[in-house]
Structure formats: C-alpha cells, structure tokens
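Now for one specimen:
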Amino acid sequence: MRTAVATFGFGRPDHFSRMLASLGACPEIQSKSVDVFHFLDGGEGSQQDELTKVIVDSGLPFVKIVARSENFGVGRQLISARREIFDEHGYDRMILVEDDIELNLTFLTTLLRLADWASQYNDIGTVQVWNVENGSKEEFQQHLDEIELTNRHFVSYCMFKSTWDAIKETLYKYEQSYLLKKPYRNRPHYRIRAFMRRRLKQGRKTPPSPRLDPPVEAIHNPFPTVSWRWAPTSQDAITSLAMYLAGLHRVTTRVPHAFYFGVTGVHCTPELYEQMGFNDQGYWQWQADDVPTTFTIRYQDGLGAWLKSSYR
C-alpha cells in the first residue's frame, strides 16, 4: 500500500521542530518506506520561512513542502491536505501528524501494523496509536497488543482512502458552506450545528462484510445530542460525525506510542488541556522489540464494564 505522512505547521517552529525530530527517529522515515509531505499554512504569523528552515536543516527526506499562499485555517488546511493526498496523488493511506505531538520511535511501525490488521474489516475507518491512559511502564507492558474503540481527538491517526471516499461528500459540503467565506476562528457555529443535526437524521449506514461488528453496547455516537450552544463545530468534529454516519469505527492501541504536548493552540488552553485529561497521559519510550505483532480488541474493562469513549 502507498502510504503518505502529512505534517502540519503554522507558526510555533519550536513545536514543529520537536515533532519533526521525533518523526525522524522512526525507521520508516529513513528507509523512505513512507512518503512525507509538509503542509504549511499561510497568512499573518505563519512563519513559513522558519518552518521551511526547520524541515531543510533536519536532513529528513520528504516529497514536497506545500506552503499555502493565504491563511486556510485548520479546517481548510486538513480537508485540503486529505483531498490532495487521496484524490490528487492517489495514496492508499494517509497518516496525519500535527505539530504538537511527540512520537515514539515505535510510532509508525505500530501504526502501520495496526493499519494492516484493520484493513481486513470494512467498518474500521481510522487507526491510531495515541491514547490517554494512565499507568506505569510495567503496567503498560502487559497491554501493548490491546486495542479499543475511541472517539478521542484526531491528534494523529491513519486514514484509509476508502474512508475518505465514504466521508468526503460531508467534509466538502462543510468546507464549501462554512469555511470559504470566513476565517476558521469565526465559522458560523449555529449554522454548522444545524448542519450536524440534519446529517444525524439521515441515519447510519452499514458497510459490506467483512466487518469487525463490535457489540452494540461498545458503540457510542460521538454526538448523541447537538446542543445549539456547546456542540463542537471543528472539521475534526465533522470528520467524526461523518465516520459514525458511514458506519465506520475508530480504533486505537490502549498503550500510547506518542505524547500530546499541545497545551496551547487553536483548540486548547492550559485549563482545557487539564480538563480533557491530557495531564494524565502515560508515555514511555518503547523499543523495536515492544511493537506488537498481533492485536486483541477489548470492549470491556477488567471488571466487565463496557468501555465508553466520548468525543473530547
């Protein structure tokens, strides 16, 4: 399968440098078994020259730097990157890496193995190896092969082209209607929430077999209600909604192979970072021998209670 890795930068060269150094530690980068694209947003504060220097000075191989001539904002930037990677370049898989996540050297190896495993099921839409789970290294060591369903933020993940084909109509409609006329920060939240409500009324599809088919108790709508005032309206929220309506699940390893350090950003503040539980992230430096070769999915905790993951 042809796999592209897409990184995203806007300002914050210190963040981008930290992310890129950790990405470069993954053996797949040096062996060029994946193709790297860097997407740099434009406009005031973009610091494209500084970010380009970070990329060039790193010496890491890449296919292309896509420097936007204007400010796309997070929404248009991520939607456009997926359009370019899948629709224009024809890649089979796309790994999205934002600038505020530090990757373990096992990150890509584990993620690609999980993607290979997931490809046998038509109802798995994305896989990721970043999770928020607290524990010691000794506790984590016992669970390296365990995976579970998630509705966590899309900090870094691998998406299949089949997934993009199933959800892009919704993303394109969202982009065309709400992102092209106003800055992303000023998107029309009430209108977007009305859009979400209309989509939810369409009902959920069932992908063809073979499917993972989790028990119904393990499946959770990321947006059981869409409140006019509080429901999120980001492109990540619309991606999550579109995947749910397409009957697709998101899967993550129980044990994290990356650390999210984005305390401040477009969607985060120190208060929100703590509220979302990111302060409780367990993160250990795994080695090549720690990469699982098989995966076991769990739907319940050790006491038999069904696991639940909300969009947050």
Q: What stands out?
A: Residues 3-297 form a domain with the Spore Coat Polysaccharide Biosynthesis Protein SpsA; Chain A fold (CATH 3.90.550.10).
